[in-house]
Amino acid sequence: MAQGYGVELYFDPALENQVLKAWNVLARRQISTQLIEMESRPQITLFSSPTLDPPKLENVMKNFASKQEPLPLSFSSIASFPSENNVLFLAPTPSFSLLQFHSQLCDVLKKEGIEIGEEYSPDSWVPHCSVAQQVPKNRMAEAFAVLRDLKLPVTGYAMDIGLVEFSPVRELYSFPLGNASDA
């Protein structure tokens, strides 16, 4: 797996538990256990890069987070990418607040001289929360059927933004959005 860094959006505990429930159901059915094994955390990846300077980015992210508010999220559909990894994900309704949050983060990163790759540019970014990776092709239909049993939409809030290093996944730091720590 590639080495690099990811800027991630983390959820409130109730929403995180709903996503973990999907991970666990897929693991019990022996469809996909990769996200659990890599000790990932349910999240939406806002940006990823093979090279970043985590200490330089820390104050930038802390400042950015302090100026934001927790974001309402509604995961309203199940989808997959047409890739070799056979990734299944929950797709959030692309609200104006989520798209604006991502666009503002990209602007802040660009001001720091960080290049935003095509996959994460505001015009191309596909917000998603992975629930399974490397699902065998012959089990994709079953995985979709299992996930359809989730009571969608699943709603909650994005509460924190963090930086992880991978692989293996290791959170370097995270910050609450706005005054989320006062809640």
Automatic annotation (TrEMBL):
It comes from the Eukaryota. InterPro entries: Cyclic_Pdiesterase (IPR009097). Transmembrane segments: none annotated. It holds the Pfam family 2_5_RNA_ligase2. This is Cyclic phosphodiesterase-like. It comes from Nelumbo nucifera.
